[in-house]
What does this fold into?
Amino acid sequence: MSEYITANDGIRLHYVQQGQDGPSVVLLHGWSGSHRCFDLNLEALAQSCRVYAPDFRFHGDSDKPGWGFHVARLAMDLHDLLIAWGLDRPTVVGCSLGSAVIWCFVELFGTTMIGKCVFVDQAPSQWRMPDWKFCSKGIYDAASLEAINSALHGSMETFADGNAECCLSKPVSAELLGTLKAETLKCNPDHLSKLMADHATKDWRPILPRVVCPSLNLYGTHSGCFPVEGCAKVGELVPSCKSVEFNGCNHWLYMEEPARFNKLVADFAKESVPPH
It folds into this structure.
């Protein structure tokens, strides 16, 4: 089922929903992606869960306004989506930027609306700082941020191809690669650049101890985006969090080892937990 809800600023947010029974699971894609990033996950998870996968604003089939280029705006959109869906403490899965959206949501609204969290291959900060060296491998200071801006405005097709090369170590089908590229090409390069400028500079380390719901932290040992130590830090800072390495996998580990990812997420979502 493909539907839309309207956010509190009038922007239409697109989402798909699959599955009729079981716990609710929300899948949040990364920067420049869409719900189609989960083509290898949605149907499998829907066998035992009710799965919701939105497109962030500026992405996929959601509206692309000329404002709101902030992680906080995406967190507010997540709030609006959860209200519209009427979900009772779902498991929220954030991949890359999606993890930062969850952390911002917790900063703004706490965890009473969220049952569990799954974070996928995202460090607490992409930015290199005197006390933080486990930053992004590609976007970590003003010069590297300008480089990605230039790449976006140079050729979106070239950027999309390079992004897949950076984020995958194991082979995926040509069909999926084509879908991912087509979804990236739906984005406006200026929108992506402005959103990344906000996302990359954030430091979520002070917020992670406030994520008091049960959590999973999944990351690839061969991530092209982050060092292992950066992603592992999430599991150290979130109080009730279990970290799981995907050996040999990259940033898009849910595409590289979908069966393992799907089982981990479904089993975790079905675990009973006390209120927090």
The CA atoms of residues 58 and 64 lie 4 Å apart. The chain is about 40% helix and 15% strand. The beta strands are 2-6, 12-18, 24-28, 50-54, 91-95, 116-120, 215-220, 241-246.
